[in-house]
Amino acid sequence: MAHEVVLLDFWPSMFGMRVRVALAEKGIKYEYKEEDLRNKSPLLLKMNPIHKKIPVLIHNGKPVCESLVIVQYIDEVWKDKNPFLPSDPYHKAHSRFWADFIEQKVYDTARKIWATKGEEQEVAKKEFIETFKILEGELGEKPFFGGETFGFVDIALITFYSWFYTYETFGNFSIEAECPKIIAWAKRCMQKESVANSLPDQKKIYEFTVWMKKYFGMD
Amino acid sequence: MAHEVVLLDFWPSMFGMRVRVALAEKGIKYEYKEEDLRNKSPLLLKMNPIHKKIPVLIHNGKPVCESLVIVQYIDEVWKDKNPFLPSDPYHKAHSRFWADFIEQKVYDTARKIWATKGEEQEVAKKEFIETFKILEGELGEKPFFGGETFGFVDIALITFYSWFYTYETFGNFSIEAECPKIIAWAKRCMQKESVANSLPDQKKIYEFTVWMKKYFGMD
């Protein structure tokens, strides 16, 4: 079966990055289409009419939306190389639980660290650290959340690493001082080409955030 | 393999009901343990230390948490009878997308219909109707969201039906007038024993909500 794969994405999106990492892990060639989220393309609106959001994976003309749904789809279609999810139902459920935990807890809290100030920012920093300490507990002494190999939970979380410099700079704190095992894990992930090539430079994300805050009058 | 299955649950929970429906669909015998959420059992706190929430499925001593994770787990362990998810990856992704849509859109909005008043309640009613009109569009002329057979998306959504009388009474509106196809679909689901036996009576949920509003001083 021939695979025509197109990714609608936006470079600083941690959700888009998840799909980039997954495609790279499987060695899938694809066409990358950058979206301007202030002026969404007719293709994006047609392919994701419900949420109108990136990322969208278009596989042989058919869209798959929502990053964790896409990552599972990629794992199921290209199942022979680097499986993301274990085959055992219990371990699979465990991975899904933690990916869901990340989905519920990380994004909104992390966003408040750079997008708010004062009390709201302080609460967000505290919650962010609490969340990552729980994640550190789950990681334990394993090299990856998936165990010996990089998997679904690693893909769900590692893309936030590209935003760490932004969180630390706006929040005036050190994630490494609070969660050293998370940083060691992130560096381990970054040694993988699939991750290193899919995540933008942390400083570029910071510059983008500075620009965005000005653009939307968030200062 | 012998299966020892225990469900930690709370009777008015639409999340707990999802697991009850899934277990009934597969014909699995289990021990039901009702939790008092004002005084959570040591077993619940031990089995779900992260969220401390029901439902928890304990299968041969090992916990699985989060309702949609549990439903997928049940489908994968007891895979021979009444599959919830299609085997094709694209259709599977499609089902996961809609279950995720329900997860993102329904609960918080629906809660505001009985828990708030005035402007906030009006906004919630409008959003609720918009969400269910989108779901009606997805259902189309199919008997179930899964097509000819009752599946994952049906399980994710049908349990809210037991709360419809509560939403309608507090919100002073008719869901059937707005979304007749959703009501026809819900009645079709209720013809299944697995659903009818797992959902409490709508009036009992209403009485529970009236009691809860008084108890928490929400009037």
From TrEMBL, chains A, B:
UniProt KW keywords: Cytoplasm, Transferase
EC nos: 2.5.1.18
Coiled coil: none
Catalysis: reaction(s): RX + glutathione = an S-substituted glutathione + a halide anion + H(+)
All copies of domain GST N-terminal, residue ranges: 3-82
Localization (cell): Cytoplasm, Cytosol
Major localization class: cytoplasm
Highest taxon above the source species: Eukaryota
Cellular compartments per GO CC: cytosol
Function: Is involved in the conjugation of reduced glutathione to a wide number of exogenous and endogenous hydrophobic electrophiles.
Protein name: Glutathione S-transferase
Organism: Lithocarpus litseifolius
